[in-house]
Design a protein that fits this description.
Elements (H helix, E strand, L loop, with lengths): L22 E2 L5 E4 L7 E8 L10 E5 L9 E5 L4 E6 L11 E10 L6 E13 L5 E4 L1 H8 L3 H14 L1
Parallel strand pairs: 2-8
Antiparallel strand pairs: 1-3, 3-6, 4-7, 5-6, 7-8, 8-9
């Protein structure tokens, strides 16, 4: 019946559900000095999450389980939504290994809990006494560009053949 129609404003409040996993806040450029000491902080990492919980974010950081036994680095959760990446041994040799990949698990404290594993790439560099980077291994620098030593040698051989 058309005479029994009415209009009422209705307000709908949409609540944000925890449907996104936290990730690194930025793409970190991390290096460790060859002469580093054990338990030396080399990076502070933080996280971001597009979800907006009512009480704010609370992130938990840890080293991935598969890397815990053979880790050259450790993760210390600062309980303030940041974590420190620390060395676990004295001295690193860029000739033996110039790049390390550290899997960091970031979890949020919401329900349902979401977590993700983010990989931090750490280059081994030569540093001065104050810890300022002087030189990084060429393999470490070219790996970021996607070229391996073998690819560089192949390109060089092609240029020599053409000459």
């Amino acid at each position: 019946n058309p005479r029994q129609i009415s209009r009422v404003p209705v307000y709908v409040r949409v609540l944000d559900v925890n449907d996104n996993a936290p990730t690194f806040a930025t793409n970190y450029e991390t290096f460790v000095c060859e002469n580093a000491k054990a338990n030396q902080r080399i990076q502070t990492v933080s996280a971001t999450d597009p979800d907006e919980p009512i009480g704010g974010h609370r992130f938990f950081f840890s080293l991935a389980q598969e890397a815990a036994g053979k880790a050259n680095f450790s993760v210390r959760d600062n309980k303030d939504n940041t974590a420190w990446i620390l060395t676990r041994r004295n001295s690193y040799n860029s000739l033996q290994k110039s790049i390390y990949h550290v899997p960091v698990v970031i979890s949020d404290g919401e329900f349902p809990m979401q977590s993700s594993t983010n990989t931090l790439t750490i280059r081994v560099c030569t540093c001065d006494r104050e810890g300022n980077m002087k030189l990084c291994n060429a393999e470490a620098l070219t790996a970021r560009a996607g070229l391996s030593t073998g690819a560089l040698v192949a390109i060089l051989l092609c240029v020599i053949i053409l000459l």
